[in-house]
Protein backbone atom coordinates (compact mmCIF):
# COMPACT_ATOMS: atom_id res chain seq x y z
CA UNK A 1 0.00 0.00 0.00
CA UNK A 2 1.25 3.46 -0.95
CA UNK A 3 -1.39 6.02 0.02
CA UNK A 4 0.61 9.01 -1.24
CA UNK A 5 1.09 7.52 -4.71
CA UNK A 6 -2.49 6.25 -4.85
CA UNK A 7 -3.78 9.74 -4.10
CA UNK A 8 -1.51 11.31 -6.72
CA UNK A 9 -2.78 8.88 -9.36
CA UNK A 10 -6.39 9.59 -8.39
CA UNK A 11 -5.79 13.33 -8.65
CA UNK A 12 -4.11 12.89 -12.06
CA UNK A 13 -7.09 10.94 -13.37
CA UNK A 14 -9.39 13.70 -12.15
CA UNK A 15 -7.09 16.19 -13.87
CA UNK A 16 -7.50 14.39 -17.20
CA UNK A 17 -11.26 14.64 -16.86
CA UNK A 18 -11.18 18.25 -15.72
CA UNK A 19 -8.58 19.54 -18.21
CA UNK A 20 -8.35 17.21 -21.25
CA UNK A 21 -5.77 19.41 -22.98
CA UNK A 22 -3.32 18.51 -20.20
CA UNK A 23 -4.16 14.82 -20.41
CA UNK A 24 -0.87 14.01 -22.14
CA UNK A 25 1.12 15.56 -19.29
CA UNK A 26 -0.91 13.79 -16.61
CA UNK A 27 -0.47 10.45 -18.37
CA UNK A 28 3.24 10.79 -19.20
CA UNK A 29 4.22 12.24 -15.82
CA UNK A 30 2.01 10.15 -13.51
CA UNK A 31 -0.45 7.61 -14.92
CA UNK A 32 2.09 5.76 -17.10
CA UNK A 33 4.24 4.93 -14.05
CA UNK A 34 3.87 2.18 -11.46
CA UNK A 35 5.57 4.00 -8.59
CA UNK A 36 6.25 7.49 -7.32
CA UNK A 37 9.97 6.82 -7.74
CA UNK A 38 9.51 6.16 -11.46
CA UNK A 39 7.38 9.27 -11.85
CA UNK A 40 9.99 11.36 -10.03
CA UNK A 41 12.77 10.07 -12.27
CA UNK A 42 10.72 10.86 -15.37
CA UNK A 43 9.69 14.34 -14.28
CA UNK A 44 13.12 15.41 -13.01
CA UNK A 45 14.95 14.03 -16.04
CA UNK A 46 12.63 16.10 -18.25
CA UNK A 47 13.49 19.23 -16.29
CA UNK A 48 17.25 18.68 -15.97
CA UNK A 49 18.13 17.28 -19.40
CA UNK A 50 20.57 19.30 -21.50
CA UNK A 51 22.92 18.94 -24.42
CA UNK A 52 25.51 17.65 -21.96
CA UNK A 53 23.30 14.94 -20.42
CA UNK A 54 20.30 13.34 -22.06
CA UNK A 55 16.95 12.75 -20.43
CA UNK A 56 17.43 8.98 -20.80
CA UNK A 57 20.78 8.91 -18.99
CA UNK A 58 19.48 11.11 -16.19
CA UNK A 59 16.46 8.89 -15.78
CA UNK A 60 18.64 5.77 -15.59
CA UNK A 61 20.80 7.38 -12.89
CA UNK A 62 17.72 8.31 -10.85
CA UNK A 63 16.21 4.86 -11.25
CA UNK A 64 19.51 3.37 -10.06
CA UNK A 65 19.57 5.67 -7.03
CA UNK A 66 15.98 4.84 -6.01
CA UNK A 67 16.61 1.12 -6.45
CA UNK A 68 19.69 1.32 -4.24
CA UNK A 69 18.31 3.58 -1.49
CA UNK A 70 14.66 3.27 -0.46
CA UNK A 71 15.01 6.30 1.84
CA UNK A 72 14.98 8.58 -1.21
CA UNK A 73 11.39 7.64 -1.99
CA UNK A 74 10.41 7.77 1.68
CA UNK A 75 11.79 11.30 1.95
CA UNK A 76 9.97 12.36 -1.23
CA UNK A 77 6.66 11.16 0.21
CA UNK A 78 7.32 12.99 3.47
CA UNK A 79 8.17 16.16 1.51
CA UNK A 80 4.93 15.93 -0.49
CA UNK A 81 2.85 15.57 2.66
CA UNK A 82 4.78 18.41 4.32
CA UNK A 83 4.14 20.72 1.38
CA UNK A 84 0.46 19.83 1.27
CA UNK A 85 0.02 20.42 5.00
CA UNK A 86 2.01 23.66 5.27
CA UNK A 87 1.57 25.49 1.96
CA UNK A 88 -1.94 26.94 1.52
CA UNK A 89 -1.31 27.07 -2.25
CA UNK A 90 -0.91 23.29 -2.35
CA UNK A 91 -4.38 21.74 -2.43
CA UNK A 92 -3.42 18.47 -4.14
CA UNK A 93 -0.64 15.94 -3.59
CA UNK A 94 0.32 15.96 -7.26
CA UNK A 95 1.11 19.69 -7.37
CA UNK A 96 4.63 19.45 -5.85
CA UNK A 97 5.54 16.64 -8.25
CA UNK A 98 4.29 18.51 -11.31
CA UNK A 99 4.69 22.20 -10.55
CA UNK A 100 6.65 23.16 -7.41
CA UNK A 101 10.33 23.86 -8.05
CA UNK A 102 11.18 23.76 -4.34
CA UNK A 103 10.04 20.15 -4.09
CA UNK A 104 11.64 19.23 -7.41
CA UNK A 105 14.95 20.85 -6.45
CA UNK A 106 15.12 18.99 -3.14
CA UNK A 107 14.43 15.64 -4.82
CA UNK A 108 17.13 16.32 -7.41
CA UNK A 109 19.50 17.28 -4.57
CA UNK A 110 18.76 13.91 -2.96
CA UNK A 111 19.99 12.19 -6.12
CA UNK A 112 23.13 14.34 -6.18
CA UNK A 113 23.77 13.50 -2.52
CA UNK A 114 23.44 9.79 -3.34
CA UNK A 115 25.93 10.25 -6.20
CA UNK A 116 28.28 12.05 -3.83
CA UNK A 117 28.17 9.13 -1.38
CA UNK A 118 28.90 6.76 -4.28
CA UNK A 119 32.08 8.70 -5.05
CA UNK A 120 30.69 10.03 -8.35
CA UNK A 121 31.64 13.64 -7.69
CA UNK A 122 31.43 14.91 -11.26
CA UNK A 123 27.92 13.55 -11.77
CA UNK A 124 26.90 15.08 -8.42
CA UNK A 125 28.32 18.45 -9.48
CA UNK A 126 26.47 18.25 -12.79
CA UNK A 127 23.20 17.70 -10.93
CA UNK A 128 23.96 20.65 -8.65
CA UNK A 129 24.66 22.89 -11.64
CA UNK A 130 21.51 21.90 -13.52
CA UNK A 131 19.30 22.30 -10.43
CA UNK A 132 20.71 25.79 -9.97
CA UNK A 133 20.17 26.67 -13.63
CA UNK A 134 16.67 25.20 -13.87
CA UNK A 135 15.19 25.99 -10.46
CA UNK A 136 17.28 28.83 -9.02
CA UNK A 137 18.17 26.62 -6.04
CA UNK A 138 21.81 25.82 -5.21
CA UNK A 139 22.24 22.91 -2.79
CA UNK A 140 25.69 21.37 -2.52
CA UNK A 141 25.62 17.56 -2.92
CA UNK A 142 27.58 17.22 0.33
CA UNK A 143 24.90 18.88 2.45
CA UNK A 144 22.78 16.65 4.65
CA UNK A 145 19.03 17.28 4.52
CA UNK A 146 16.35 15.39 6.42
CA UNK A 147 12.80 14.56 5.37
CA UNK A 148 9.52 16.41 5.69
CA UNK A 149 11.14 19.47 4.07
CA UNK A 150 9.04 22.32 2.69
CA UNK A 151 10.72 25.13 0.72
CA UNK A 152 8.07 27.65 -0.28
CA UNK A 153 8.66 29.48 -3.59
CA UNK A 154 12.30 28.34 -3.32
CA UNK A 155 13.85 31.07 -5.45
CA UNK A 156 17.50 31.85 -4.58
CA UNK A 157 17.93 29.16 -1.91
CA UNK A 158 21.63 28.43 -1.16
CA UNK A 159 22.73 25.55 1.10
CA UNK A 160 26.45 24.94 1.56
CA UNK A 161 28.53 21.80 1.51
CA UNK A 162 28.76 21.08 5.25
CA UNK A 163 25.28 22.30 6.16
CA UNK A 164 22.96 19.93 8.00
CA UNK A 165 19.18 20.38 7.94
CA UNK A 166 17.03 18.27 10.26
CA UNK A 167 13.59 16.75 9.73
CA UNK A 168 10.37 18.75 9.31
CA UNK A 169 12.10 22.02 8.48
CA UNK A 170 10.33 24.80 6.57
CA UNK A 171 12.06 27.67 4.81
CA UNK A 172 10.99 30.37 2.40
CA UNK A 173 12.67 31.94 -0.62
CA UNK A 174 16.12 33.57 -0.59
CA UNK A 175 17.38 31.68 2.47
CA UNK A 176 21.13 31.13 2.69
CA UNK A 177 22.84 28.51 4.85
CA UNK A 178 26.36 29.65 4.12
CA UNK A 179 29.88 30.16 5.35
CA UNK A 180 31.58 33.32 6.56
CA UNK A 181 34.80 33.36 4.56
CA UNK A 182 37.33 31.30 2.63
CA UNK A 183 38.07 28.70 5.30
CA UNK A 184 37.36 25.09 4.37
CA UNK A 185 36.32 22.23 6.63
CA UNK A 186 33.09 22.22 8.64
CA UNK A 187 31.92 25.76 7.96
CA UNK A 188 28.14 25.77 7.45
CA UNK A 189 25.09 25.87 9.76
CA UNK A 190 23.41 22.96 11.49
CA UNK A 191 19.62 23.37 11.52
CA UNK A 192 17.64 21.34 14.05
CA UNK A 193 14.30 19.58 13.61
CA UNK A 194 11.09 21.57 13.25
CA UNK A 195 12.80 24.89 12.50
CA UNK A 196 11.09 27.68 10.52
CA UNK A 197 13.38 30.01 8.52
CA UNK A 198 11.73 33.12 7.10
CA UNK A 199 12.23 34.66 3.65
CA UNK A 200 15.62 36.23 3.01
CA UNK A 201 17.21 34.98 6.24
CA UNK A 202 20.95 34.30 6.19
CA UNK A 203 22.39 31.76 8.63
CA UNK A 204 26.18 31.92 8.38
CA UNK A 205 29.02 29.86 9.77
CA UNK A 206 29.34 26.60 11.68
CA UNK A 207 26.58 27.46 14.15
CA UNK A 208 23.59 25.54 15.48
CA UNK A 209 19.93 26.52 15.27
CA UNK A 210 18.12 24.50 17.93
CA UNK A 211 15.07 22.33 17.44
CA UNK A 212 11.77 24.15 16.83
CA UNK A 213 13.34 27.61 16.66
CA UNK A 214 12.15 30.44 14.42
CA UNK A 215 14.40 32.70 12.32
CA UNK A 216 12.57 35.85 11.28
CA UNK A 217 12.52 37.03 7.66
CA UNK A 218 15.54 39.10 6.66
CA UNK A 219 17.61 38.16 9.69
CA UNK A 220 21.36 37.51 9.64
CA UNK A 221 22.20 34.78 12.15
CA UNK A 222 25.85 34.61 13.23
CA UNK A 223 25.57 32.83 16.61
CA UNK A 224 23.88 29.72 17.97
CA UNK A 225 20.11 29.89 18.41
CA UNK A 226 18.65 28.03 21.42
CA UNK A 227 15.83 25.56 20.88
CA UNK A 228 12.27 26.95 20.80
CA UNK A 229 13.35 30.61 20.56
CA UNK A 230 12.61 33.28 17.96
CA UNK A 231 15.50 35.38 16.64
CA UNK A 232 15.30 38.48 14.47
CA UNK A 233 17.44 41.34 13.24
CA UNK A 234 20.92 42.08 11.86
CA UNK A 235 22.71 40.55 13.59
CA UNK A 236 19.92 38.33 14.88
CA UNK A 237 19.14 38.26 18.59
CA UNK A 238 16.54 36.46 20.68
CA UNK A 239 13.25 38.35 20.67
CA UNK A 240 11.00 35.78 22.32
CA UNK A 241 9.79 32.22 22.42
CA UNK A 242 9.01 30.24 19.27
CA UNK A 243 5.31 30.53 20.06
CA UNK A 244 4.34 26.90 19.46
CA UNK A 245 5.66 23.37 19.75
CA UNK A 246 6.84 23.10 16.14
CA UNK A 247 6.96 26.37 14.15
CA UNK A 248 7.74 24.67 10.85
CA UNK A 249 4.29 23.06 10.90
CA UNK A 250 2.22 26.12 11.79
CA UNK A 251 4.22 28.49 9.52
CA UNK A 252 3.34 31.37 11.87
CA UNK A 253 5.90 34.11 11.17
CA UNK A 254 4.41 36.86 13.35
CA UNK A 255 5.99 37.85 16.66
CA UNK A 256 3.36 38.77 19.21
CA UNK A 257 5.46 39.37 22.33
CA UNK A 258 7.55 42.23 23.66
CA UNK A 259 10.98 42.82 22.11
From TrEMBL:
InterPro entries: Hexapep, Hexapep_transf_CS, LbH_SAT, Ser_AcTrfase_N, Ser_AcTrfase_N_sf, Ser_O-AcTrfase, Serine_acetyltransferase, Trimer_LpxA-like_sf. Residues 4-108 form the Serine acetyltransferase N-terminal domain. Keywords: Acyltransferase, Amino-acid biosynthesis, Repeat, Transferase. One of its GO terms (molecular function) is serine O-acetyltransferase activity. NCBIfam families: cysE, EPS_EpsC. Pathway: Amino-acid biosynthesis; L-cysteine biosynthesis; L-cysteine from L-serine: step 1/2. The gene is cysE. GO terms for cellular component: cytoplasm. Belongs to the transferase hexapeptide repeat family. It catalyses: L-serine + acetyl-CoA = O-acetyl-L-serine + CoA. It holds the Pfam family Hexapep. Gene3D superfamilies: Hexapeptide repeat proteins, serine acetyltransferase, domain 1. This is Serine acetyltransferase. The keyword Nucleus does not apply. GO terms for biological process: cysteine biosynthetic process from serine. Its EC number is 2.3.1.30. The keyword Zinc-finger does not apply.
Amino acid sequence: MDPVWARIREEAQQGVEREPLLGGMFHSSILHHRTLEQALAFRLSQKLASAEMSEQILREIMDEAHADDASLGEAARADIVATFERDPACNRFMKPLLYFKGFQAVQAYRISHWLCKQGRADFASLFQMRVSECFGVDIHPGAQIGKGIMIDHAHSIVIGETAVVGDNVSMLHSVTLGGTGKSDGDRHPKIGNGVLIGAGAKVLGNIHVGDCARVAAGSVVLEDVPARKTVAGIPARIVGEAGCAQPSLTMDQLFKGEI
